[in-house]
Fold each of these.
Amino acid sequence: MSRTPDSITDDAGFFLEPSHPRQRQYEALRAYFAEGLPSAQAAQRFGYQPGSFRILCWRFRHAMERDFFRDSPHGPKSQPRKNAVRERIISLRKRNLSVYDIRDELERTSQDRLSVTAIQEVLREEGFARLPRRLDEERPNRPRPMADAIADVRMFSLPPGEFSTHAGGLFLLLPLLARLDLDAMVERCAFPGTKMIPAAHAVRAALLLKLLGKSRRSHVMDLVFDPGVALAAGLNAIPKTTFMSQYSSRLGRKALVRLLGAWIEKLRDEKLVDASSFDLDFHSISYFGEDPFVEKHYVPRRSQRRKAILAFLARHAGGNLFCYSNADLRKGEEADEVLRFVKFWEQCYGERPRHLVFDSKLTTYANLSKLHNELQVTFVTLRRRSPALLAQIATLPRSAWRTVHLEVPHRKFKTPRVVDQRIQLRDYEGTLRQLLIRDLGHDQPTVLLTNDLTSSLKAVITRYARRMLIENGLADCVDFFHLDSLSSAVALNVDFDVLLTVIASGIYRQLAGTLRGYERARARQIFRRFLDTTARVAISMSQDLVTVRLPRRAHNPILLDAGLIGTTTPIPWWKGRSLKLEVV
């Protein structure tokens, strides 16, 4: 029976209604262990929850010592390190110094070092509010970030003198840019520009960053104080990240297609591409932002569907360079992109592509029928291996398979077994040639579809095996040109970025074609061995000449044999000056 408060005397209340937590624990445990009061009643009498009281009993039973009810001593209430410099901190704050300034001042004038958090605690205890934003003249005198000049072509000049640059190898590419006449291409495509940064200078500056292999567009800030990069672009200073973002947002798909067409015409004039054969593929560029309008696509590197930008790329098989891109695709438009590529190439080159090689998921059977019947384009593609098709292949007798010897020197699997069939498929008007291939390096048989009914088995299989070179080219674009760097500090137009990758890779392929032994080298290898170097730049007024002196390196003889050293090349955007490369 519980007692009413009136029936409890003051002396009894000291034991039955203890005020100190430790005494309350003592009386409750004594009632349970010594007086035999049930656990629930003891908990109710002293204001515990039944579960909490059971835990208290368990802790008492398992206590190693019987000083269970003794209060644990607390640590010191004062902080000697803070108190020693408290007055100093207050006086520094009265001088309008921030917590970081105070920390640096304490480290400079005394041996006492306090963290920013400790200084904030002292100021908060003393009643100081957060320091408002200060003007530059209110801040302490110390080294501060320097502001580079604003990019303005009207301020560009070539005063006589010398300077050093970390991007010396970039000048090896300027003769190629001058010969390709990028300025005329951009002007003909009516790209937007300003009086400070014309269209040609804006595109050239963005392209130079690609050629240098900068991993993020924000890394342009690493180059703003390098006069060599600004000189290569024809500006007094390289444009900053803000301009790159804003300029790319002004470029639509139609303008980029015009520039891509002009680029193809220039490659045609240089006899670097033709209409013989192309490899086609999709590439998913992962997106890590919060834009709800970015669609989900399958990303092979992640083996999952996630937010991504889908890009279509075409690679010229003979020239080993990319010649078409489109990163402005939406859901449902992927299958027709191969037809748009054929139309684009016919308009720019004057001739339809004669041969296309691509994967199974690139287009539909209906579009394959259009390629064959309407456009007269030969193609080779994979067929998806359905369970029914695999079961059909498994029932074929051994006598149906024919061994083919592939004349590919560096290939491991050179003797595949093949079954050559003629089939008809739904949505395809006509007869297709189906090749069932085993021992090609895969666990499951490879199934090829083609409308080429006359070529030999060896020719068809060898040509499809070379399609893997587009995978190597995409890996090079991701590795060096950073094709997958979508979510970065600069909101660059993805379609423009992919087009710059196509042009930059083409320039590297042209440079590689002049370097003996490096015709098929990747861009990163070429950059590391030939372009990643410092240089000394000398500007001469009397000779209208800009001389770039490269240091001696092991691979300089290859540059000499290629004719890149010692020649003089006029640079159109240098106000009549010419470039001469030397090795010292």
Amino acid sequence: MKKLDKSGREEKDFDKKKITEIYEETLKGIREGEVVKGKIVKIQKGDVYVDVSYKSEGAIDINEFPEPAALKVGDEVNVYIESKENEEGNLVLSKVKADESKSWQSVLEIAKENREITGKVSRMVKGGFMVNLGMDAFLPASQVALRPVKNLADFVGKELNFKIVKIDRKRKNVVVSHRKCLEEIREKGRDQLLKEIKVGEVRKGRIKNLTDFGAFIDLGGMDGLLHITDISWGRISHPSEVLAVGEDIEVIILDFDKARNRVSLGLKQRTPNPWEGIENKYPLGSRVKGKVVNLVDYGAFVELEEGVEGLIHISEMSWTEKLEHPSKILKIGDSIEALVINLEKESKKISLSIKQLETDPWILAKEKYLPQVKVKGRVKNIVDYGAFVELEEGITGLIHVTDLSWGKVGHPKDILNIEEEIEVVVLEVNPDNKRISLGVKQLTENPWEKISERINVGDSVSGMVKKTTSFGIYVELEKDVDGFVPSEELSIEGEKKSASDFQIGDKITAGVVELIPDKREIKLSIKKYLGSSK
């Protein structure tokens, strides 16, 4: 008789032995340490229960799942078999280890094929970073970028492409490089750039580095050199005056060498050469305005416009002053007016003058300081051969020592003092050589012209000791007329015998033994005077 179930349907006989065999076969297919696919059957109290067709479900902490809130019963997930049976007889599963195992297999495959892998820089560690590839990988600081990075912390949290450069299978350690990816991009860009590049074309680039001699521009695949002389038509001492690292600019290809991967760039060439038509802008004799940009021993450079400078030679700075250095009257940054006195377009030279904006005062001096005219001036310098006297600003004359006095002068400082105001007579004016000869003695008559009318040989004369020497004494007989008593003529027996016995200011009487007016010499003798008076 057929056996019926509760619904009235025929109940089939089950082969219990067969079911047991199938169940045991299923158990054999699950091995510890492998990843299997399972189904979520329950989510309860922070645990996710997963059925992997084993005798029991395994519980996994919900925090092992990357998006816990999105989980639902029935979802299929990959899990890692940690243990078929723990101390409590339960199946032990791990979602984290399943993901890591999957990532490890993926890393091995990508490394074998030398492909790029995407990961997120998670944190800084000693010597570099840890990168999350689904598993941790180490990124050395030297492999972050093509060039050293100032602030490495800026990379934390960034998602980047990497190349796998080292794998330790035993320890499951992975070392990655972002720099390798950048180098490949750069190499491809360089090859493409060298195929397309043409002299004279304009290219966009980014300033990568600044040096004393120029700037390196990233053209998107390779660097080009923008030399400092090609940055501006004007004068710059360093590229940082007009450029900044990270700035985007447009440059012109001046030259390139495919074999050596070198590209020369220009920036100033994007604007017209300011020396074109220069002769029309700055004709000879024209007055120009500019700014002093440099001072050198021989003159001052003046910027007339960007890229155009003129030189004021030190000889063109003043009609009257002999300057040792331009800084005596100019300084960098001064705005000045000058006269164009020469222009050489081919060699890009403009000669300027500031003194020629005014009339040469020495031309006027010839009319103003006529010979025999009496003028006043101030002693500015005293030298062995005379004294320099300033008559007006920039006009200085010389009194030669022989024109200081009708008498004999040992040194000009015996008569004159610095800054002393004196009256002089103009003797001669030479504007070509910028010289004026002056005289003081010419203010009075020459007392030696008619000396023989007042003094003769044999006369007795009196005077005051003016100077003593080892060989005799000088006696002032009248203004600018001196007599000399040699040592051997100083005394007779019983009287003073040497010059040291006399003091300046002593009054003496002596006899005239020799008179030479042309040489302005009068020889005296105390000895003969005293001897004749006996």
